[in-house]
Amino acid sequence: MIATLGYSALLLAFLFALLGAATPLLAARTPMRAASGTVWLAIWGQFVLVTLAACALIYALVAPDFSIRYVAFNTTRATPLYYRITGLWGALEGSLLLWEWILIVFSGLVAWIYRHRHREFMPWVLMVFSIVSAFFLGVLAFASSPFETISPVPPDGRGLNPLLEDANMMTHPPLLYTGFVGLTVPYAFAMAALIVGRLDEAWIITTRRWTIAAWFFLTAGNLVGAWWSYHVLGWGGYWAWDPVENAAFMPWLPTTAFLHSIQVQERRRMLKVWNLSLIMIAFSLTLFGTFLTRSGILSSIHAFSSGPVGSLFLGFLALVLLGSFGLLAYRSDLLKGQPELDSVLSRESAFLLNNIVLVSALFTIFLGTVFPLLSEAVAGVQVSVGAPYFNSATTPLFLFMVFLMAVGPIIAWRKASWDNLKRNFLRPAAASLAAGLVLFILGVREFLPLLGFTLVAFVILTIVYDTALALRARRRIAGEGIISGLVTLARRNQRRYAGFVVHLGVVLIVMGIAGSMSYSIEREATLGLNETLTIGAYRIRFEGLKGSQQPTHFRVEGSFRLFRHGVEAGVLSPALKFFPTQEAPVGRAVHRSTLAEDVYLILSGFSEVNRNQATLKALVRPLVVWIWIGGFVIVLGTLLSILPLGKNAARGGD
Amino acid sequence: MRKNRRFLIGGLIILAALSYMIYGGMQEALVYFVTPSELKAQQPSPTDKFLRMGGLVVKGSLQKDLQNLTYRFEITDGATSVPVFFRGVPPDLFGDGKGAVVEGRLGSDGVFHASAIMAKHAEEYSPHPDGQDSYPRSFVPAREPLIK
Q1: B147 and A617: CB-CB below 8 Å?
Q2: Is the dihedral of CA A482, A488, A491, A497 positive or negative?
Q3: Does the pLDDT of residue A10 top 80, yes or no?
Q4: I need a labelling partner for A609 at 20 to 30 A (CA). Which of A13, A558, A599, B141 fits?
Q5: Which residues of B touch A583 (CB under 8 A)?
Q6: CB A577 within 8 A of CB A560
Q7: What is the bridge-based pairing of β-strands B99-106 and B112-118?
Q8: Cβ distance A341 to A278 under 8 Å?
Q9: CB nearest to B136's CB, from A387, A392, A578
């Protein structure tokens, strides 16, 4: 019953999507006004029907209705309500439906917000949305339906993958998907601009906030993912250059580049083709990422595709790339002739360099991710590209990017004079070199982390120095104090100061990564009762194991008392979770955080016969907590940049 | 025209630097995947190469020493098997008769010295093959499996 309802809604929505995709093309000769009415109808039709389908699946998961295969495979009677709902994105079919749902919510929002504006663009924008939506609905309806039924109906389901039974399941996938899907908005406007042939800055100015929002969700999604793997997966890391992680990170790079280079177009009308290309690449990478993670091409080395979904994504990706760049080539005559760079010492060129660095990073990561596939397809040799490749190839690029974060927002547009450079950068540069020297004396001797920390200091100091100069000026002009001066500055020049805050957040993350990558220590040992393990400043004493039955699993917890420099610092209880349907236990790591370092414990195993013995893996990872603090600072900066605070708001955008 | 040439040169320099970084990184981090048979077939034995070897842990070959955290076992692809030595904590999924990928170098003694053992969690996990749960017997007495 509920399956039929959900499936019919998907089929009907598919028809509406086709209608939305076809109307503007068919109506090319008739007045656009009639066409836009039909496209509108198509969007709202999809909105209602897809929402209905998603609610049907959620209802089936909550009920639970085991006659639906997806429900039977992703919940059990014992699954708490919370995880039944998150079961919506617990596996392939449901996550595709969630993606489609977010997509159609976005297109509904766009259609509603611009209902009286951009009459020229809107039918085409909504057409692009409908085409993307038609693809997803086609996959959902004909290739991997979440409403497929199963008979005989099993008495109980198999349950969510135990690895997914975690609080972060509530946030990480929806955040990431919202980021992915959010990129469709600037992409659709870019396509509309190309189709209509209005290639001025209109599409960029309209979609800037949408892009910032999408960027924000991508950033948050990736950080929460890192947090999740750090806290749960029990290997002590937050990033492993796993292809799945790369797939989520890759769209972030061209989006970040885009957010910088559109400022050059807004200000100087340069880089038109470049900006269009960046957003096409970013959008394509969201599809590519889904293809990578959903085709099974990576998890099984031999099978190129475990189902039809992978090849469908590849086909659609090819279509998107051909269509987008074909359109770009078709309009090339409209894109010719733009102002040239005046000087290498200018903000334009800093932004250009920033773009080159980000795209280079994207290229190296892309290459490392697909190299195993190419190697097997072309040469038949199975290889894997390990983390050392990604680290060594991207570290110099990211360090250079940190340097640019100090220079870019402060150097003058068009042409910076030496005087100007000296005034803005001499003191922060000298101070950061001094900071580097102090670190060297304190014992930071390795080149890359030392350079990293010095550059981080350079960014922070330039930002602080620039703000201090502005505050001093405000004090002279208006007699304002520090707080009211900061408020005035933020209101008067919201974008600049929001950018500063985001950059601060990013360099804090860089600091956390540099510290934890370079100075972590790791020990493992099998301990008897009251035996201790010493690691860094810590002594860890094993004080026994206890077991307890949880709603979905049986948990064995080890109790470890922590001493730091001989002073007691609490008890940590890493655990192993045994799920009835899972062959191997799932670890639950625990850690104690300070601003300086984390001590991180993993229960690796225990004796089956003797309860008084456990194998412990312990890590001390410096500065990790700054990664999460940096994440919060980025949240603040992004809010500051899109909230209507100051004078910009009155003008309705920037 | 002069400006274009300058950009071209700049671009080429960047491209060259990038290619060098990529090439250097690849040299360091490219890990070849072999089966035990392929490893044995290579003459002379490649003791200098960092490799990944995949197969099944031969049933009954696993000897653990929990005190020193050392593991000795054999990996087979059905035709040939190679002895492996590993010190550390293997992943949860590792065990007798299970599939595993080991990463390391072949020693001159013919033993593969692994620095890491990998066992990948399948995304769609499957129930225990014998229909049994895997609860730790030292904590929970054996009982009826939850799912038949």
Answers
A1: no
A2: negative
A3: yes
A4: A599
A5: 93, 125-126, 128-129, 134
A6: no
A7: antiparallel
A8: no
A9: A578
Beta-carbon pairs below 8 A across chains A and B: 139
Residue A91 near residue B124 (C-beta atoms within 8 A): yes
Distance CA B129, CA A72 (A): 19
Quick count: other Cβ atoms within 10 Å of Cβ B137? 10
Strand positions, DSSP E, A404-450: none
Q: How far apart are CA A94 and CA A218, in angstroms?
A: 20
pLDDT at B89 over 50: yes
Sequence-ordered strand ranges (E) for A127-215: none
Total residues belonging to chain B: 148
Token reading at A236 = 């002590």
pLDDT, position B110:
86
Closest CA to A579 of A556, A604, A602, A609: A556
**Tens digits of residue pLDDT in A264-284:** 888 888 888 889 999 999 999
* DSSP assignment of A576-621: EEE-TT-SS-EEE-EEEE-SSEEEEEEEEEE-SS-TTEEEEEEEEE
Q: Supply the pLDDT for residue B127.
A: 45
For B88, residues 6+ apart whose C-beta sits below 8 A from its C-beta are A524, B69, B115, B116, B117
Helix intervals (H) in A121-162: 122-138
pLDDT tens-digit series, residues A164-197: 777 888 899 999 999 999 999 999 999 999 998 8
Contact A526 B29 (CB under 8 A): no
**What's the pLDDT score for residue A582?**
67
Distance (Å, rounded) from C-alpha B91 to C-alpha B120? 9
pTM for the model stands at 0.89
ipTM: 0.74
> Angle at the Cα of B101 (from B96 to B106), degrees rounded to 5?
105
Identify the residue among A241, A297, A363, A389 best suited for mutation to test binding to B, counting B beta carbons within 10 A and taking the highest. Answer: A389
Q: What torsion do the CA atoms of A273, A276, A278, A282 make, to the nearest 10 degrees?
A: -160
Q: Are A173 and A181 in contact (CB under 8 A)?
A: no
Length of chain A in residues, anyone?
654
Determine the longest span between alpha carbons in chain B, in angstroms.
83
The answer to whether A251 and A286 have CB atoms below 8 angstroms apart is: yes
Short-list A175, A227, A216, A258, CA closest to A639 = A216
Chain A residues inside the 8 Å CB shell of B133: 578, 580-581
Helix (H) or strand (E) holding A538: strand A538-549
Q: Do B134 and A360 touch (CB under 8 A)?
A: no
pLDDT above 90: residue A393: no
Burial class (CB in 10 A: 0-12, 13-18, 19+), A322: exposed
